[in-house]
Write a structure and sequence with these properties.
- This is GTD-binding domain-containing protein.
- Helix 1 runs antiparallel to helix 3.
- The chain is built from 3 helices and no strands.
- The longest helix is centred in the first third of the chain and has 86 residues.
- It is rod-shaped, with a radius of gyration of 38 Å.
- It has a domain of about 80 residues.
- It is mostly helical.
């Protein structure tokens, strides 16, 4: 009878050991799932930050191009104004001559402005399409 009791105790201890092992395994799996979820959340956050950074970079680039375009237009207007002042010779200049000095540069200025704008839009579209599917 003592032998039977010892075997029962050993079986009970063995069952307790298996139970502890199963609890540890379950806890390990739970922690692994939590770690995977955290990893996925951090990865998504990283991707969103990268996308936001790229969008901000594109906006800064577009604004810089716009500033360059405006500087170019100001320069052209200053050149036209200087030409008009030099050619004035105290005679009256008609309003239509003041706007266009006859050299055809006004049309060129607008063509270049449109080309710059289309270039900026094309660049933005290309980058947007590339990073659309993060």
């Amino acid at each position: 009878s003592l032998m039977g009791t010892q075997e029962e105790i050993d079986d009970h201890n063995e069952d307790d050991g298996k139970l502890e092992l199963l609890k540890a395994l379950r806890l390990s799996q739970t922690r692994a799932r939590e770690a995977e979820a955290k990893c996925a959340a951090i990865s998504k956050e990283r991707d969103l930050l990268a996308l936001g950074f790229m969008q901000n970079s594109m906006e800064v680039f577009a604004y810089r191009q716009l500033v360059r375009l405006l500087e170019f237009q100001v320069s052209k207007l200053q050149q036209q104004q200087n030409k008009q002042e030099m050619s004035c010779d105290c005679r009256m200049v008609r309003e239509d001559e003041a706007i266009d000095d006859g050299s055809g540069t006004t049309g060129l200025t607008w063509i270049m402005a449109v080309a710059f704008c289309l270039g900026i839009a094309g660049f933005g579209l290309a980058i947007g399409c590339k990073y659309k599917y993060f």
